[in-house]
Structure formats: C-alpha cells, structure tokens
Specification:
The chain is an all-alpha fold. It is built from eleven helices and no strands.
C-alpha cells in the first residue's frame, strides 16, 4: 500500500502542472499531442541514464567533494537531461502542424519535461520514501516544468523567427542547463559534505534558484498569453487599430492561493483514493470493514481530491480572467 501511495505522489504533481500550463494556452493543444509528447519525455530517461551512469562513475573518483558535486550537477544531470528534453521538443513537437504559435513552445516544453520528471521522480520516490515524495513534489518536479517552459519559450521564438532559429534554440538550452546545474549543485554539495557543510546556506541557495525559475517561467507564460489575447481581440475586430491590453484589474492573490491549496489537497486526496481503490482490487480489505473503509476513503480521499481539483481549476480560470479583461484601445 505504501509503495502505491508513493507512486501516486510521484505522478499527481506532474498531472496538475500539465493541466496548469495547458489551461493557460488561449488556443489549447490537442490531447493526443500532449500525451505523445509526455510519453516521449518519459522515454528520455533511457538515454539520460545511458550517458549519465558512466559519467557518474567517473565523477565519483574525484576526491574533492565540492568539485565532484559541480561536475555531477552539470555533466550528469543538467546537460544530458535538458538536451534530450530539447530533442523531443525540436525534433518531434516543433515539426508537427499543431505547433503553430510561440506559446506552443512553452506548453510542449513543459509536457516533455514533466514526462521525464515523472519517471525520474517515480524512481527516486520508490527508493527514498515519503520524505522524498513530499520534497520532490514541491521542488524537483516544478523545477523541471519551469525549465521546460523557459526552454520552450525560446523554441517558440525560434519557430517565429526562422532566420534566428539556431540562436534561439541554443540560448534556451544554455539557460536551462545553467539554471538546472545551479539548482542541483547545492543539493549535491550538501549530500557530499554531510555534516561538515553549511546545510542551511546551501538549501537556501537551491530555494532561491527555484523561486527565480518559477517567476521567470510564469512571466514568459503571461507574456505569450497576453500576445495571444491581443491577437484574438484583433481577429474579433479586424478593422480596429493595433491592440493593446489594459492592465489587469483582478488581483492575482486569490487565484494563486486557490491553486496552491488545490495542489496540496488534490495530491493528498489522490494518493489516498487510489491507494484504497487498489486495496479493494487486490482484496486487502476485509469484508467486514468494507463500509467503514468506503466512508473513510470518501472523507479523506475522494472529498479532498474533488475539492482540490475544483480549487485548482477555479484558480487557473481566475488567472486567465485577469488577462481576458482586455479591449482594443
């Protein structure tokens, strides 16, 4: 049962993040493209491990822990992981006719990254337990999504500007690798140094990088969504002058709170609900306990899952409504 709950905890955050970025697209991508890209993202774990394991063994011979951590963060994690995510984005998603605007770069970049992150997270969580499940759900998984959004933004600009395609793709890749490496380095240094290292300082450094990546990714997403809505307004009024959006009048605080509580509630409820469902399927629930387990599962599993999903959905719609409040001046 515990292994099942841990597996669900590795998957739910990714599903919610895919939902978020897909919902922020004013012209949503087809579900089949989303899940094909996600599946290819999952498969990138294989070449990453193929390349990463020999490099990891070589880096392990470095006696200086800080230097070894730096090499591990850059050459074992950041460079191969971001490269193969980029391969999916450029050689598959970008070549499809459904990829027809810059925002698609962000959406598919997030989805490919979360495909990789979900499988990677599953491996870590099954080995590390509940503590790893909780910490990675709110750190490593969002990091991959936000890095995918940033790299995807530049891929979208490459699609928009064919003459500068290579420049934009390389820029997005370099930024993603750099941010990924400086996020991982403090964590790996903490592990290598043990009790001798400045744990608090290193943890704060990683948190600071996560906040920067989060803010950057959401800023780029809002920028492209604003461009989408300007385009939509101009399409609706073809004789009107160039369109600009009024500053949003709605507060962002409440939607962000709703999204945050929705993620926590849906993740916890989903773990419990699926775990109990599998317990019934596997016959792990005694016949005399069926009603009690069903009632308890409804209260601590299904109810938080539904409420969390509704909160999350309402919060995302609230953010979208801030930008829909626009007109052509």
């Amino acid at each position: 049962m515990l292994q099942t709950l841990l597996a669900v905890s590795a998957i739910v955050p990714s599903v919610l993040l895919v939902w978020y970025f897909h919902a922020r697209d004013a012209y949503p991508e087809p579900a089949r493209m989303i899940w094909k890209t996600f599946g290819l993202g999952v498969l990138t774990v294989l070449p990453v491990l193929t390349i990463g394991i020999p490099i990891h063994l070589a880096v392990a011979r470095i006696e200086q822990p800080v230097l070894a951590s730096a090499f591990e963060a850059l050459f074992v994690a950041a460079i191969p992981e971001e490269f193969f995510k980029l391969v999916v984005l450029v050689l598959y998603s970008m070549r499809k006719q459904e990829f027809d605007e810059p925002m698609d770069g962000i959406v598919y970049g997030v989805v490919a990254s979360l495909g990789f992150a979900t499988f990677e997270n599953l491996l870590y969580v099954m080995d590390g337990g509940t503590g790893v499940a909780f910490s990675r759900a709110f750190s490593a998984v969002p990091l991959h999504a936000f890095l995918g959004a940033i790299m995807g933004y530049y891929v979208g600009q490459a699609w928009k500007n064919p003459g500068r395609r290579t420049e934009f793709i390389l820029r997005g890749y370099a930024i993603a690798v750099f941010l990924h490496a400086i996020y991982d380095f403090p964590l790996m240094a903490m592990n290598a140094l043990g009790n001798e290292g400045p744990k608090l300082l290193l943890a704060l450094a990683t948190l600071a990088v996560l906040v920067v990546v989060w803010r950057w990714a959401l800023h780029l997403t809002r920028r492209l969504r604003r461009e989408q809505l300007v385009h939509r307004v101009i399409e609706a009024a073809p004789g009107a002058p160039d369109g600009v959006l009024e500053p949003p009048t709605r507060s962002r605080v409440m939607p962000v709170i709703q999204i945050s509580f929705g993620v926590i509630s849906a993740s916890a409820g989903g773990m419990v609900a699926l775990g109990l469902t599998l317990a019934f399927i596997l016959g792990a629930v005694a016949a005399g306990d069926t009603i009690d387990v069903l009632l308890g599962g409804a209260m601590i599993g299904l109810l938080p899952l539904v409420v969390g999903g509704l909160l999350f959905r309402h919060g995302v719609r609230g953010l979208n409504r801030r930008l829909v409040a626009a007109r052509v001046l």
